[in-house]
Model the fold of this input.
Amino acid sequence: MARFLPVLEHEREENNYLRRIKRRMREENDPFNLRDDRFMELFRFNKATMRELIELLEPHLILGARVHKTSKQHRILATIRFFASGSYQRCVGQDCFVNLSQSQISLAITEVAAAIENRLGDFIAFPNPEEYAAIKTTFMERYNVPGVIGFVDGTHIAITKPTLNIEHQYLNRKGFHSKNVQIVCGPNNKIFAINAAHGGATHDAFIWRQSNIARILEQRFTGGDRTSWLLGDSGYPLQPYVITPVRNPADGTPEHRFNIAHRRARSCVERCIGVLKARFRCLIQERVLKYAPVKAGSIINACAILHNFMVARNVPLPPEHEILEHMDDPGDNDDDDLVPEQPPNEARMINVALETRARLIRQHFN
Done:
């Protein structure tokens, strides 16, 4: 046994040497010394907004523990670099501007994502009725569809294969494991709500019915609001506050014209998803979040919060070709060909919903 001690001692010395080299490289290669365009390319943030983000998050990170010898700033930068690049942790850790071990990167992502959710979660909020008028005006001017306060859609975020006992919940109809993430958005790529709690096998309609936003809109409808709704594709249930397309209308009819306007308006949420994924490439299918579903959900939530943080501060958008590349294919929605079942307690609302949509078509698309 003793003959192995020199080898172990040599390995310890080598590891200590590498740690010292990485620490010195981090100190000497401050990413804030980069050109502005290079900094944006690496982190998707401009320098001013990144400094503000660091200032907001640092008080909520651990200080002094052995595993956190790395500075708070470097943990934040390493996490944002991972979100932005979608590269595996080892690649991020070897980046000369980050230089952390894979274990340090993993710890940093967990800690920083939780801090973003806890500290900045208020950046995602569904609008109050007092805010509806301005939103409706914006969408009416853009798409000529009245009453619209937002759009709802789902997008699949690829994750690594979960454990066997829950794998079936995450295998989607396209054959890969994912989270089916529901996004509600408003004007200017702003996310109003996100739900990353469900696996890729879950139908859009089921996720919608379990969401807080569905309950909020139902309460507001019951309270008397009859002229405000989200637009959703045919994977969602038609409700008085969720207006979906008419199935198979004849060409040239008011219903067909309504569907064209409806589809054009829904490009708003597809673009929002494209911007989100272009900013944070860890969310694109080719990258795959190599984490258990709960941690993957935390990362998805953190990216959405950061996206809204950037929207609020007018951080420049990614290049247009990247946004277009990561927009979901509008003709490739898993749930579009599935007619969502109407639960018994909703059946009484279907006539109200049908009349709401018919009145909308009659008044604006004849």
